[in-house]
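Protocol step 4 of 6: structure prediction from sequence.
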Amino acid sequence: MVPSSSSLHRRPRSSRSSSSGIRWPWVIFLLIAAALVCSCTVLLVICYTILTSLQAGTGFTLSAATPVRSGDGAASVASDFMSALKAHRYLQAYQDLGDVELVGLSADDFERQARHADACGGSITAYQLSKHVAVEQEGSQHDYTVLRGKLHQAYRFTLVLRQSARGAWGIVSYGQGNMLIPAGVLCQS
């Protein structure tokens, strides 16, 4: 039997042509999966950024890590001051004081006061921002609850900050009468 001319010109079916129809659904599936992975990654980065910005300067600070020091506001300065006191970095805390003449302490006097507070009341073991309010036109008040190692209960510690004409924030008043421990704490030094 002689093959017809029409059958000679036909291409034989190969296994490739049947699998080419299956490739497109897999390609589309992989593109959708890649898009979902990218979207989830972006969403995680956004959530992390929001959470870290909300937590800046609030909550119990249990590590001695140095916070990011930037001139972005009163909350940043207040948080840096508290973190520096907790970590015994007294000169760094002193540099957060805005109007040194108003506070009335030299760096050496402030360091002596901080060491005395740590000796009498114990080191700061934890602090938490309990209240923040805007005061007057260019002021801010931050009330902290502070725990010290030798004191049996937490106490309120207030920071009052003002913004200078240059826009920098600084602490103009702290504690009760610019004292780092509550009034009435007896010290045996």
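Step 5 (inspection) to follow. The first strand starts at residue 124 and ends at 135.
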